[in-house]
Protein backbone atom coordinates (compact mmCIF):
# COMPACT_ATOMS: atom_id res chain seq x y z
CA UNK A 1 0.00 0.00 0.00
CA UNK A 2 1.20 3.50 -0.85
CA UNK A 3 2.35 5.59 2.12
CA UNK A 4 0.13 8.50 3.10
CA UNK A 5 1.70 11.86 2.28
CA UNK A 6 2.05 15.16 4.14
CA UNK A 7 3.02 18.68 3.11
CA UNK A 8 3.96 21.52 5.47
CA UNK A 9 3.38 25.14 4.44
CA UNK A 10 5.35 27.37 6.80
CA UNK A 11 4.84 31.07 7.48
CA UNK A 12 6.93 33.33 9.68
CA UNK A 13 10.12 33.16 11.63
CA UNK A 14 12.96 30.72 12.00
CA UNK A 15 11.36 29.17 15.06
CA UNK A 16 8.42 28.20 12.86
CA UNK A 17 10.76 26.76 10.25
CA UNK A 18 12.51 24.77 12.94
CA UNK A 19 9.16 23.55 14.32
CA UNK A 20 8.19 22.45 10.81
CA UNK A 21 11.34 20.32 10.62
CA UNK A 22 10.17 18.53 13.76
CA UNK A 23 6.59 18.19 12.57
CA UNK A 24 8.05 16.57 9.44
CA UNK A 25 10.07 14.25 11.72
CA UNK A 26 6.91 13.27 13.54
CA UNK A 27 5.05 12.53 10.29
CA UNK A 28 7.91 10.45 8.91
CA UNK A 29 8.16 8.50 12.17
CA UNK A 30 4.51 7.60 11.61
CA UNK A 31 5.26 6.30 8.12
CA UNK A 32 4.16 9.30 6.02
CA UNK A 33 6.24 10.59 3.12
CA UNK A 34 6.58 14.21 2.07
CA UNK A 35 4.48 15.31 -0.92
CA UNK A 36 6.07 17.56 -3.54
CA UNK A 37 3.23 20.08 -3.36
CA UNK A 38 0.17 20.91 -1.23
CA UNK A 39 -2.09 20.13 -4.20
CA UNK A 40 -1.16 16.45 -4.05
CA UNK A 41 -0.87 15.59 -0.34
CA UNK A 42 -3.14 13.65 2.01
CA UNK A 43 -2.49 15.95 4.96
CA UNK A 44 -1.63 19.63 4.72
CA UNK A 45 -0.10 21.24 7.79
CA UNK A 46 -0.24 25.03 7.83
CA UNK A 47 2.29 26.44 10.29
CA UNK A 48 1.13 30.00 10.91
CA UNK A 49 2.61 33.29 12.15
CA UNK A 50 0.68 35.91 14.12
CA UNK A 51 3.33 38.49 14.86
CA UNK A 52 1.53 41.09 12.72
CA UNK A 53 -1.97 41.16 11.28
CA UNK A 54 -0.52 40.82 7.79
CA UNK A 55 1.02 37.49 8.72
CA UNK A 56 -2.38 36.17 9.78
CA UNK A 57 -3.92 37.56 6.60
CA UNK A 58 -1.38 35.63 4.53
CA UNK A 59 -2.34 32.34 6.17
CA UNK A 60 -6.02 33.11 5.60
CA UNK A 61 -5.26 33.95 1.96
CA UNK A 62 -3.39 30.69 1.52
CA UNK A 63 -6.27 28.65 2.96
CA UNK A 64 -8.66 30.52 0.69
CA UNK A 65 -6.51 29.51 -2.32
CA UNK A 66 -6.54 25.89 -1.16
CA UNK A 67 -10.33 25.91 -0.95
CA UNK A 68 -10.73 27.55 -4.37
CA UNK A 69 -8.25 25.14 -5.98
CA UNK A 70 -10.00 21.98 -4.80
CA UNK A 71 -13.43 23.41 -5.62
CA UNK A 72 -12.24 24.19 -9.12
CA UNK A 73 -10.79 20.76 -9.82
CA UNK A 74 -13.69 19.03 -8.06
CA UNK A 75 -11.43 16.78 -6.01
CA UNK A 76 -11.38 15.86 -2.35
CA UNK A 77 -9.07 18.29 -0.54
CA UNK A 78 -6.41 17.08 1.91
CA UNK A 79 -7.02 17.00 5.64
CA UNK A 80 -5.97 20.46 6.89
CA UNK A 81 -4.13 20.84 10.18
CA UNK A 82 -3.41 24.30 11.52
CA UNK A 83 -0.57 25.01 13.93
CA UNK A 84 1.83 27.86 14.83
CA UNK A 85 1.20 31.20 16.45
CA UNK A 86 -2.34 31.72 15.17
CA UNK A 87 -3.41 29.14 17.73
CA UNK A 88 -3.41 32.04 20.22
CA UNK A 89 -6.99 32.69 19.06
CA UNK A 90 -8.14 29.45 20.72
CA UNK A 91 -9.74 26.49 18.96
CA UNK A 92 -13.31 27.73 19.01
CA UNK A 93 -12.54 31.07 17.34
CA UNK A 94 -10.14 29.47 14.86
CA UNK A 95 -12.65 26.89 13.64
CA UNK A 96 -15.18 29.68 13.27
CA UNK A 97 -12.70 31.97 11.46
CA UNK A 98 -11.28 29.23 9.22
CA UNK A 99 -13.95 26.57 8.68
CA UNK A 100 -11.71 24.72 6.22
CA UNK A 101 -9.43 23.66 9.11
CA UNK A 102 -10.00 20.05 10.26
CA UNK A 103 -7.64 19.92 13.20
CA UNK A 104 -5.61 22.30 15.36
CA UNK A 105 -2.20 21.25 16.64
CA UNK A 106 -1.14 23.41 19.63
CA UNK A 107 2.35 24.68 18.98
CA UNK A 108 3.63 23.55 22.39
CA UNK A 109 2.86 19.96 21.40
CA UNK A 110 5.57 20.10 18.77
CA UNK A 111 8.15 18.37 20.96
CA UNK A 112 11.73 19.63 21.23
CA UNK A 113 13.08 16.17 20.97
CA UNK A 114 11.33 14.83 17.91
CA UNK A 115 14.07 14.18 15.34
CA UNK A 116 14.06 17.00 12.81
CA UNK A 117 13.96 16.33 9.08
CA UNK A 118 16.47 18.79 7.66
CA UNK A 119 16.94 19.80 4.05
CA UNK A 120 20.33 21.32 4.78
CA UNK A 121 23.31 19.01 5.26
CA UNK A 122 25.76 21.47 6.81
CA UNK A 123 23.79 23.94 8.87
CA UNK A 124 21.15 23.06 11.51
CA UNK A 125 18.65 25.08 13.53
CA UNK A 126 18.43 23.87 17.11
CA UNK A 127 15.66 25.14 19.40
CA UNK A 128 17.00 25.65 22.93
CA UNK A 129 13.90 27.16 24.43
CA UNK A 130 10.29 27.63 23.60
CA UNK A 131 7.79 30.31 24.59
CA UNK A 132 8.64 33.68 26.05
CA UNK A 133 8.45 35.37 29.44
CA UNK A 134 9.38 38.83 28.26
CA UNK A 135 5.89 40.26 27.82
CA UNK A 136 6.85 43.13 25.55
CA UNK A 137 3.53 44.94 25.50
CA UNK A 138 3.10 44.67 21.71
CA UNK A 139 3.98 41.01 21.34
CA UNK A 140 1.71 38.03 20.87
CA UNK A 141 4.42 35.40 21.43
CA UNK A 142 3.86 34.75 25.18
CA UNK A 143 0.20 34.05 24.35
CA UNK A 144 0.78 31.97 21.24
CA UNK A 145 3.83 30.02 22.38
CA UNK A 146 3.25 30.09 26.12
CA UNK A 147 5.77 30.50 28.89
CA UNK A 148 9.47 30.17 28.34
CA UNK A 149 10.77 26.66 28.80
CA UNK A 150 14.43 25.79 28.45
CA UNK A 151 15.34 22.57 26.75
CA UNK A 152 17.61 20.26 28.74
CA UNK A 153 21.34 20.69 28.28
CA UNK A 154 21.80 16.95 27.65
CA UNK A 155 19.14 16.88 24.94
CA UNK A 156 20.75 19.81 23.13
CA UNK A 157 24.22 18.29 23.34
CA UNK A 158 22.93 14.88 22.14
CA UNK A 159 21.39 16.60 19.14
CA UNK A 160 24.68 18.38 18.40
CA UNK A 161 26.54 15.04 18.70
CA UNK A 162 24.18 13.43 16.19
CA UNK A 163 24.58 16.34 13.81
CA UNK A 164 28.36 16.22 14.08
CA UNK A 165 28.27 12.49 13.30
CA UNK A 166 26.32 13.32 10.16
CA UNK A 167 28.83 15.97 9.04
CA UNK A 168 27.06 19.17 10.13
CA UNK A 169 29.40 22.11 10.84
CA UNK A 170 27.15 25.09 11.59
CA UNK A 171 24.54 25.50 14.29
CA UNK A 172 22.01 28.24 14.96
CA UNK A 173 20.53 28.15 18.45
CA UNK A 174 16.95 29.36 18.54
CA UNK A 175 14.82 30.89 21.25
CA UNK A 176 12.77 34.02 21.77
CA UNK A 177 15.39 35.15 24.27
CA UNK A 178 18.40 32.86 24.16
CA UNK A 179 20.23 34.84 26.87
CA UNK A 180 17.86 33.59 29.52
CA UNK A 181 18.27 29.93 28.58
CA UNK A 182 18.48 27.79 31.70
CA UNK A 183 17.95 30.59 34.22
CA UNK A 184 15.98 30.05 37.36
CA UNK A 185 12.46 31.35 37.02
CA UNK A 186 10.98 33.91 39.37
CA UNK A 187 7.37 33.97 40.44
CA UNK A 188 4.95 35.85 38.24
CA UNK A 189 1.41 37.08 38.62
CA UNK A 190 1.09 39.06 35.46
CA UNK A 191 0.06 36.49 32.92
CA UNK A 192 -2.68 35.20 35.17
CA UNK A 193 -4.10 38.71 35.23
CA UNK A 194 -4.04 38.83 31.44
CA UNK A 195 -5.66 35.45 31.14
CA UNK A 196 -8.41 36.37 33.55
CA UNK A 197 -9.19 39.30 31.30
CA UNK A 198 -8.96 41.78 34.17
CA UNK A 199 -8.31 45.43 33.73
CA UNK A 200 -4.72 46.40 34.42
CA UNK A 201 -2.37 49.31 33.94
CA UNK A 202 1.24 49.73 32.86
CA UNK A 203 2.20 49.33 36.52
CA UNK A 204 1.03 45.72 36.47
CA UNK A 205 3.74 44.80 33.99
CA UNK A 206 6.83 43.12 35.37
CA UNK A 207 9.88 45.37 35.85
CA UNK A 208 12.45 42.95 34.58
CA UNK A 209 12.04 42.02 30.99
CA UNK A 210 12.14 38.28 31.30
CA UNK A 211 11.83 38.18 35.06
CA UNK A 212 15.01 36.32 35.77
CA UNK A 213 17.62 37.39 38.27
CA UNK A 214 21.02 38.24 36.88
CA UNK A 215 22.95 35.02 37.39
CA UNK A 216 26.09 34.91 39.47
CA UNK A 217 29.07 33.43 37.68
CA UNK A 218 28.93 32.15 34.12
CA UNK A 219 25.36 32.32 32.75
CA UNK A 220 24.00 28.94 31.58
CA UNK A 221 23.74 30.16 27.99
CA UNK A 222 27.47 30.93 27.93
CA UNK A 223 28.19 27.43 29.28
CA UNK A 224 26.04 26.01 26.51
CA UNK A 225 27.98 27.97 23.88
CA UNK A 226 31.23 26.70 25.35
CA UNK A 227 30.02 23.08 25.34
CA UNK A 228 28.94 23.28 21.69
CA UNK A 229 32.17 25.02 20.69
CA UNK A 230 34.10 22.13 22.22
CA UNK A 231 33.02 19.95 19.27
CA UNK A 232 35.94 20.25 16.92
CA UNK A 233 33.77 19.68 13.84
CA UNK A 234 31.51 22.62 14.69
CA UNK A 235 32.92 25.61 12.85
CA UNK A 236 30.22 28.26 13.28
CA UNK A 237 27.62 28.99 15.97
CA UNK A 238 24.87 31.57 15.68
CA UNK A 239 22.02 32.35 18.04
CA UNK A 240 18.85 34.34 17.92
CA UNK A 241 17.22 36.27 19.38
CA UNK A 242 18.87 38.15 22.23
CA UNK A 243 17.46 40.82 24.45
CA UNK A 244 19.68 43.80 25.38
CA UNK A 245 18.49 43.88 28.97
CA UNK A 246 20.12 40.57 29.88
CA UNK A 247 22.95 40.48 27.39
CA UNK A 248 25.42 39.67 30.16
CA UNK A 249 29.07 40.78 30.22
CA UNK A 250 30.15 37.11 30.33
CA UNK A 251 28.32 36.55 27.04
CA UNK A 252 30.05 39.56 25.46
CA UNK A 253 33.42 38.26 26.67
CA UNK A 254 32.66 34.79 25.26
CA UNK A 255 31.71 36.23 21.86
CA UNK A 256 34.89 38.28 21.91
CA UNK A 257 37.21 35.35 22.47
CA UNK A 258 35.32 32.45 20.87
CA UNK A 259 35.68 32.93 17.12
CA UNK A 260 33.39 30.00 16.37
CA UNK A 261 30.57 32.35 17.35
CA UNK A 262 29.45 34.33 14.32
CA UNK A 263 30.65 37.93 14.19
CA UNK A 264 27.11 39.00 13.28
CA UNK A 265 25.02 39.62 16.42
CA UNK A 266 21.32 40.27 16.11
CA UNK A 267 20.18 42.61 18.86
CA UNK A 268 16.70 44.10 18.53
CA UNK A 269 16.36 47.61 19.93
CA UNK A 270 12.71 48.23 18.86
CA UNK A 271 12.94 51.99 19.56
CA UNK A 272 15.57 54.64 20.23
CA UNK A 273 13.29 56.49 22.65
CA UNK A 274 13.35 55.58 26.33
CA UNK A 275 9.72 56.63 26.73
CA UNK A 276 8.66 54.27 23.93
CA UNK A 277 10.86 51.47 25.30
CA UNK A 278 9.12 51.92 28.64
CA UNK A 279 5.67 51.69 27.04
CA UNK A 280 6.87 48.61 25.20
CA UNK A 281 8.07 47.08 28.50
CA UNK A 282 11.44 46.27 26.97
CA UNK A 283 13.21 46.54 30.31
CA UNK A 284 16.23 48.55 29.08
CA UNK A 285 17.07 52.05 27.98
CA UNK A 286 18.76 53.39 24.86
CA UNK A 287 21.86 53.94 27.03
CA UNK A 288 21.92 50.28 28.06
CA UNK A 289 21.64 49.25 24.40
CA UNK A 290 24.57 51.50 23.49
CA UNK A 291 26.57 50.09 26.39
CA UNK A 292 26.09 46.53 25.06
CA UNK A 293 27.03 47.56 21.51
CA UNK A 294 30.13 49.42 22.70
CA UNK A 295 31.24 46.48 24.84
CA UNK A 296 30.70 44.09 21.92
CA UNK A 297 32.77 46.28 19.60
CA UNK A 298 35.46 46.64 22.25
CA UNK A 299 35.53 42.84 22.67
CA UNK A 300 36.16 42.43 18.94
CA UNK A 301 36.07 45.28 16.39
CA UNK A 302 34.99 42.77 13.70
CA UNK A 303 31.61 42.26 15.39
CA UNK A 304 28.70 43.66 13.42
CA UNK A 305 25.21 44.17 14.81
CA UNK A 306 21.75 44.04 13.29
CA UNK A 307 18.46 45.05 14.84
CA UNK A 308 14.66 45.03 14.79
CA UNK A 309 12.69 48.27 15.12
CA UNK A 310 8.97 48.92 15.38
CA UNK A 311 7.72 52.22 13.97
CA UNK A 312 4.41 53.86 14.78
CA UNK A 313 4.06 52.16 18.15
CA UNK A 314 1.08 53.46 20.15
CA UNK A 315 1.59 57.13 21.02
CA UNK A 316 4.97 57.42 19.27
CA UNK A 317 5.39 61.16 18.87
CA UNK A 318 7.39 62.76 16.09
CA UNK A 319 10.06 63.66 18.68
CA UNK A 320 10.22 60.06 19.91
CA UNK A 321 10.54 58.79 16.36
CA UNK A 322 13.31 61.36 15.76
CA UNK A 323 15.25 59.83 18.64
CA UNK A 324 15.21 56.49 16.79
CA UNK A 325 16.28 58.26 13.60
CA UNK A 326 19.20 59.90 15.40
CA UNK A 327 20.26 56.64 16.98
CA UNK A 328 20.08 54.85 13.63
CA UNK A 329 22.49 57.42 12.22
CA UNK A 330 24.76 56.97 15.21
CA UNK A 331 24.82 53.16 15.34
CA UNK A 332 26.11 51.57 12.20
CA UNK A 333 23.71 48.61 12.13
CA UNK A 334 24.54 46.07 9.48
CA UNK A 335 20.84 45.52 8.89
CA UNK A 336 17.56 46.62 10.43
CA UNK A 337 14.27 44.77 10.22
CA UNK A 338 11.88 47.66 10.47
CA UNK A 339 8.25 46.74 11.19
CA UNK A 340 5.10 48.80 11.22
CA UNK A 341 3.32 48.47 14.57
CA UNK A 342 0.42 46.08 14.32
CA UNK A 343 -1.80 45.96 17.44
CA UNK A 344 -2.38 42.34 18.45
CA UNK A 345 -5.61 41.62 20.31
CA UNK A 346 -4.88 40.13 23.72
CA UNK A 347 -1.57 41.91 24.22
CA UNK A 348 -1.01 44.59 26.84
CA UNK A 349 -0.47 47.44 24.38
CA UNK A 350 -3.68 46.55 22.59
CA UNK A 351 -5.52 47.00 25.85
CA UNK A 352 -3.64 49.91 27.38
CA UNK A 353 -2.70 52.20 24.50
CA UNK A 354 -4.78 53.38 21.54
CA UNK A 355 -3.26 52.62 18.13
CA UNK A 356 -3.21 56.30 17.27
CA UNK A 357 -0.61 56.71 14.52
CA UNK A 358 -2.28 56.81 11.08
CA UNK A 359 -1.11 54.08 8.71
CA UNK A 360 0.30 56.58 6.19
CA UNK A 361 2.46 58.11 8.92
CA UNK A 362 3.65 54.68 10.08
CA UNK A 363 4.61 53.94 6.50
CA UNK A 364 6.49 57.21 6.18
CA UNK A 365 8.45 56.44 9.35
CA UNK A 366 9.17 52.93 8.04
CA UNK A 367 10.61 54.38 4.83
CA UNK A 368 12.78 56.90 6.66
CA UNK A 369 14.38 54.25 8.86
CA UNK A 370 14.67 51.61 6.18
CA UNK A 371 16.53 54.11 4.02
CA UNK A 372 18.93 55.12 6.76
CA UNK A 373 19.73 51.64 8.01
CA UNK A 374 19.43 49.40 4.98
CA UNK A 375 20.34 51.51 1.98
CA UNK A 376 23.74 49.84 1.54
CA UNK A 377 22.87 46.49 3.01
CA UNK A 378 19.90 44.97 1.22
CA UNK A 379 21.85 42.02 -0.12
CA UNK A 380 23.32 41.04 3.21
CA UNK A 381 20.13 40.64 5.22
CA UNK A 382 20.45 37.58 7.44
CA UNK A 383 17.50 35.30 8.12
CA UNK A 384 16.13 36.43 11.42
CA UNK A 385 13.36 35.47 13.83
N1 LIG B 1 12.27 37.58 20.56
C1 LIG B 1 12.70 38.70 19.83
C2 LIG B 1 12.83 39.93 20.71
O1 LIG B 1 12.67 39.85 21.92
O2 LIG B 1 13.08 41.01 20.20
C3 LIG B 1 11.87 38.98 18.61
C4 LIG B 1 10.78 38.07 18.22
S1 LIG B 1 9.54 38.71 17.12
C5 LIG B 1 9.07 37.19 16.47
C6 LIG B 1 10.36 39.48 15.79
C7 LIG B 1 10.10 40.94 15.65
O3 LIG B 1 8.77 41.18 15.27
C8 LIG B 1 10.29 41.78 16.88
O4 LIG B 1 11.63 42.04 17.14
C9 LIG B 1 9.50 43.03 16.57
O5 LIG B 1 10.31 44.01 15.94
C10 LIG B 1 8.45 42.52 15.59
N2 LIG B 1 7.11 42.56 16.20
C11 LIG B 1 6.65 41.84 17.23
N3 LIG B 1 5.39 42.16 17.52
C12 LIG B 1 5.04 43.15 16.65
C13 LIG B 1 3.85 43.92 16.47
N4 LIG B 1 2.78 43.76 17.24
N5 LIG B 1 3.85 44.83 15.47
C14 LIG B 1 4.93 45.01 14.68
N6 LIG B 1 6.06 44.30 14.82
C15 LIG B 1 6.13 43.39 15.79
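^ C-alpha coordinates above, recovered residues below v
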Amino acid sequence: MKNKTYYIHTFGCQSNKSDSERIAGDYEARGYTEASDWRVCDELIVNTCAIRQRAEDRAKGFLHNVRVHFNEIGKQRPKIILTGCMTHHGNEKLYEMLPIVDEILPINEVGFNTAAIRKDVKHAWIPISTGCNSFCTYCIVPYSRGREQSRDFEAIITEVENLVDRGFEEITLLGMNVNSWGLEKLGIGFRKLMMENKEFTRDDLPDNQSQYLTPTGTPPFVKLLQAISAFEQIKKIRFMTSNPWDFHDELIAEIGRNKKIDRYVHLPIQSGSNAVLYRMNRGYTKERYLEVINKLRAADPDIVVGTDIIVGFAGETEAEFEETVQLSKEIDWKVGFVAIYSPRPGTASFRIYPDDIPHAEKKRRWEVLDQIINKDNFDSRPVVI
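Residues 53-73 form the longest helix (21 residues).
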